Amino acid sequence: MTDYAAGLDKALQALHDEGRYRTFIDIERRRGQFPHAVWTRDDGSEQEITVWCGNDYLGMGQHPLVLSAMHEALDATGAGSGGTRNISGTTVYHKALEAELADLHAKEAALVFTSAYIANDATLSTLPKLFPGLIIYSDALNHASMIEGVRRNGGAKRVFRHNDVAHLRELLAADDPDAPKVIAFESIYSMDGDFGPIAEICDLADEFGALTYIDEVHAVGMYGPRGAGVAERDGLMHRIDIINGTLAKAYGVMGGYIAASAKMCDAVRSYAPGFIFTTSLTPSIAAGAAASVRHLKTDQALRDLHQDRAAVLKLRLRGLGLPIIDHGSHIVPVHVGDPVKCKMISDRLLSDHGVYCQPINFPTVPRGTERLRFTPSPVHTPPMIDALVHAMDDLWSHCALNRAQAAG
Prior knowledge:
The protein is of the alpha/beta class. The chain has helices spanning about 5-15, 65-75, 90-105, 115-130, 145-150, 165-175, 200-210, 230-235, 260-270, 275, 285-295, 300-320, 340-355, 380-400, and strands at about 25-30, 35-40, 45-50, 110-115, 135-140, 155-160, 180-185, 190, 195, 210-215, 240-245, 255-260, 330-335, 355, 360, 370-375. It folds into 2 domains: about 25-55 and about 300-400, Alpha-Beta Complex (Aspartate Aminotransferase, domain 1); about 65-295, Type I PLP-dependent aspartate aminotransferase-like (Major domain) (Aspartate Aminotransferase, domain 2, 3-Layer(aba) Sandwich), CATH 3.40.640.
């Protein structure tokens, strides 16, 4: 008979042996004090820490307007939505949020999901149902949610080398010119912080008659004059057919969405199991997200401060000779290249310096490219940056790692 417990032990031990077993730590964010939090150790003791790896990029999870909107909705309607969007789960709060998102991206409509992962997976796996014979062209470094959606759709797929427009052209040119096509890519790739070649991809889409699908998860709220993302910043939103975004990063709440034509959103709404059979977001979350989106359409000062903090951190780390990966975005990866040392630095940052930054190991990134990924925000103050830089300087020397600039 199969020894299932032994099988589990073997699988988990393999992760420990490779130095990439992931541990969770218990932290408590405290309102008004972010990015400070309290870490509860295994022995029950508590330690004040500073969170440097969070996705609440602008601190909107603590913003008074967001909290007020959530309190009001909670008091008015109660906790849950009560069902799927098709069965009693569509409220005035969901409709208001979708209207804010459609306006943000200058699209006819938007469709809200429980997460951006689900939005990607559900939409990309549904498109072949809407366009029989569809071929999806997917960037090699697309997020796991996009890969999963493409994998599950049952249609043809082509993977082009990361940001390689020439390779994408080769693939497009090799296929039937009459076949329906969609090019799926990201505006900012979160592990390196590099930008997708949006204009060049749109040019190819026009030339070969393809739809464009862009994931703006790491850009919405932070780029563009109203925070609609890199496509807005570059004046290209009108050339994108489907925009995917999240409400759980810069907007500080929870959920994901697509913005597109009214017909596209209606079709996805009607055919995607990931939308049809999932209980909708709570009204309080929808209300908080709508308030956050509405506010960030006008708060350019917060976006500017965010970029300033990221630039300062990169400058300081580069000054120490640390191998940062810098493509000009707000994401600050520091290349370690060894899973054991990466976890060691992460553990010591937390225990010795009160700095919380999870290691990024395989399969999130390829083996040999393990890294620490810092996400500075407007609420990370200069003294916090000083503390992080000094801690990294100390631990880099302790681990005897090279001080050579990584390729940007």
